[in-house]
Amino acid sequence: MTSTNVPISSEPDFSPPELLMPAGSIEKLRFAFAYGADAVYAGVPIFSLRARENEFRIASVAEGIDYAHKFGKKIYITMNIFAHNSKIDGFLDSFCQVQDLCPDGFIMADPGLIAKARRLRPEAVIHLSTQANATNWASVEFWRDMGIKRVVLSRELSLKEISSISQKVPDIELEAFVHGAICIAHSGRCLISNYLNHRDANQGTCTNSCRWEYKLSSEIGSLEQVESNRPAAKDSTNYQPIDGTYFLTEPNKPEDRYEVDEDEHGTYLMNSRDLCAIELLADLHQSGVCSLKVEGRTKSIYYVSLVARAYRRAIDDMIAGRPFNPDNLKELMSTSNRTLMTGFLKRNPNHYGENFDDGGSKPLTHRFAGVVREYDEARSMALVEVRNRFECGDSLEWLTPTDTVHEVVRHIEKRSGERVNEAHGGAGLYWMPSSVRADEFTILRAQLG
């Protein structure tokens, strides 16, 4: 067994870390690579923890692998459910089918399935999913000895803990999340969705029930009666519990009741803020992380592209020894989020990590306006698939993997040639003049406010 006390160099490793982006479809995969990703992860719904808004099937996995390898990129296939008996045979059959397509690795969590997969195809590269909750060096050492090449660390670790794992187990790759949603539970080990909607987070069908808006109600009456049932406290520091049985109800489903208790800290279902570690990339890389992972297979191509571009620029600046550019953080704030934080990397966020205002992920500074599907160079016109309404006179930003160009919408044409004053999302394709040599990866956005 490899020693757990092998020292590492005091000099940081500034070879480029991998930027690993999510891919919920072939289109998202292509945009992720165009905007700077080194690798993507994708998976078919039945064996992946993203069953909704996930367009991959075995045929499209094959297409994605071919596309990635054509451009010298990597693709990892996510098969990280904790399977029930009925899924084991199908899981292993699919694993063998995908391995025949030569992906760069599999992301798995279930120890039994990992063992069986390694016996079936010992040549397959397996990464340990964050679902397995590797939170310490002893666990990482165990998985290394089981033949795992890379461990996707739990989001709940600090930089200090990550560095300690790297020092104790230097002969394994470490991957860490740097951006995206954070779960109420240790990386998805949650039963709220199952309890309320019979949709299991560990089977890929989480409804994000923890983020819904809830109201406190009682078997004996309305919310106003809750405080009347609380015994009077002698002082503000002496918490007195309320009497009776209470429930949370979601306004859209008042018939569904979730029984809750209250303690001195209150009653909350943890609607977490989103993770953003773009300012900590050098710390993460120096701590031993070789792959920087972004969450979001259900996000839009706008989100995938802008996040990839911001992190690509930040990584390139870090490797070149340039100071951190705050414009990259500003760019991330233009994508939908629940307000951003650095998670557990610096410290336990405690209540700062909770968003008490709104469970939804929403755009804060910009709105996704459209994506270019064709460019007529002779006319300097772009054919745009509109995602959100805009009109003549609006100022739009045309985004490419390298540039951002501001232009006022001068006129809009339907494909028939008819001029219109406005374009609507979902209403088809429109021609627009553009000074940008717009290719298939050009995105349009409008500033809010």
Protein described:
The chain has helices spanning 26-34, 58-70, 85-99, 111-120, 137-145, 159-168, 192-197, 224-228, 281-286, 301-320, 326-333; strands spanning 18-22, 39-42, 74-78, 105-108, 126-128, 150-152, 173-180, 215-218, 246-250, 253-260, 274-276, 291-294, 340-341, 366-376, 381-386, 390-391, 395-399, 404-408, 412-414, 419-420, 422-423, 429-433, 443-447. It is α/β, with parallel strands linked by helices. The chain folds into three domains: 18-186 and 272-353, Copper homeostasis (CutC) domain (TIM Barrel), CATH 3.20.20.380; 213-260, no CATH class; 366-447, Elongation Factor Tu (Ef-tu), domain 3 (Beta Barrel), CATH 2.40.30. β6, α6 (159-168) and β7 (173-180) form a beta-alpha-beta unit. The protein is globular, with a radius of gyration of 24 Å.
Total DSSP helices:
11
Helix content: 10-25%
Instruction: Let me know the number of strands.
Output: 23
Which structural class do you get from the secondary structure elements? Answer: alpha/beta
The CATH superfamily of the largest domain is identified as Copper homeostasis (CutC) domain
The unreliable regions are 1-12
CATH topology of the largest domain: TIM Barrel
The CATH architecture of the largest domain: Alpha-Beta Barrel
Q: What overall form do the CA principal axes indicate?
A: globular
What's the level 1 CATH class of the largest domain? Alpha Beta
Assembly category: single chain
Strand content: 15-25%
